[in-house]
Structures are given as structure tokens and as C-alpha cells.
Amino acid sequence: MGALSGKVVLVTGGGNGIGRDCALIAAQEGAKVVVNDLGGGLKGGDEGSTGPAETVAQEIRAAGGEAVSNSESVTSMKAVQGMVEQARDTFGGLHAVINPAGILRDAMFHKMTEQEWDLVIEVHLRGSFNVARATIELFREQQDGAYMFFTSTSGIIGNIGQANYGAAKMGIAGLSRIIAMEGERFNVRSNCLAPVAWTRMTQSVPIRNEEHAKRREVMAKTIRADQPARFSVAMVSPAASSVSGQIFGASGENIILYSQPRPIETVTKEEGWTVDTILSEAVPKMAPKFFPLSRQPAPAPAPAKAG
Asked: Whole-angstrom Cα distance, residue 277 to residue 21?
């Protein structure tokens, strides 16, 4: 008996990278899987292909599991509704969605085109809305449903050249949180994951300097797609029924829990603030707690070892 025995799971972007491993591991854990993948390239706008999704579905079936493929786009609400119907018609229901489908259109913001912005927002943020909106009523009615959305450190911490991607990924974190809050009394859970893994998306990010190149070499050897995929599968299983509304990270064998924005400093002036006192008093008071513009997060506590 696997962690997902008796459950039906939709995995978007399931033909490659983390999505592929999510589909394979979900099946290994007993789930019946709808493997969705448009089959296009990272840049989007490419002609789709049934190949990647069907290849993964065939691999699951060859191993004794149950899976069907779907090659529609998450950017279309009608297409996502079709995925839900496919799951119900083929397997009799749907209980979880894992949604790593994504593309990149990297550019410095002052050079970013409207198309580069719109396409990334459409796939990531609109796509996340579509898969949630197409399933949320079913999940609430059956009082059984779980989402794993995908955010990114490009939004949580920031990354030069990815304003479109970072904005979409921060939007997904907000979406996931509110779905979790609204779904709590209906046993509908939602979490999001900021993964780090050696995939074709990671490989497409330009190398900026020698340090970056060395870091990529380490990633290729030690940070695999199956690691965040395994965590994603665990979080949509019934055994994780108490976990919702969280932002996680997975990098190699490190599982990370991210903080979520909350006030860290408040300054008050009973007689009211002026422009001058804001600049001379409020800002200096808060400045020691400002976050730097570097990608390095604030120092974290030493990792806790499991077992």
C-alpha cells in the first residue's frame, strides 16, 4: 500500500523534469495518474506534442501502474476542465493536483517585452488559477483535495533577469495561501514548493560568472528532479492532512520551510509623521532590519537532522 493508494492525481508539466518524476513517483505510491504536458519548449509558443506525456504514461503502465496522457495547455480553462473530466471518466475521480508546468522568458526588465511578460504570467499564474478553479468545487464537495503549486526563490528572494517569472511565482504563493485558508473546513489543502533541481529549466538560465558556473556543476551532480518530486507527492498524500498553507523548498536532500511576510518593525508618532520626520526618524529606525538586494537570504538556524 503506497501513500497515494486509491487516489487520482493530475500532474501538469509531467513530461519532463520535476513533473515527470512527480508522475512516476505518484504512480509508484499507488496513484492513478493523469500526465499532462503540452510538449512544447521552455520558451513557450512552440507547437505542442503528445510525445512527452504519453511516454511517461507508458512508462507508468509498463511498471504496472495506471496512467493516461493529456497534451493540452494549462493556459486554457476549457483544456484544464477537460483534464478533470478525463480523470473522472477514466479513473472515477480526482483527489490531488501537482502543478509544476512552466516556461521561461528571461530578460532584464528594462528590455522585457509585453509578450515576454504576458506569456510567463499566463502559463504560471493563470495556469495555476485554471487548475485550481477547475477542481476546487469538486474538492470542496467531496471534502478531499490537495494542491501542490510551484513557487520559486526567483520570487521569494529575487533573481536578476526574471521579473516576469518572479512576479508570477510570488502570485502563486499568495494564491496557494488563500486557497488553503478558504479550504480548511472542507479538508482542501494547498501548499507550494520552491524547488532547486537540475532540469532543462535550470540549465537554460545563462551563466553569469565563474562562481555561477561552478555552482551549476555541483547542481548537475547532486541536486536531482526526483528530490522535490518526492516531497511534492508526500505533501498531497492523506498522511500530510495537517499540512496546508505553507511555503516549502527542496534542494538536494534539504527540505526547507520558508517564512511568510509578516510585520517585523512598527514605528509610531502620536502627533503624526511629516516628510522630514519620516526621513529623519522612521527610516533610520527601520533600516537595520532592511533586507539586502543580494540573493543570499538571512542566516538560517543550523539544519535539524531527521532520524
From this structure: 55
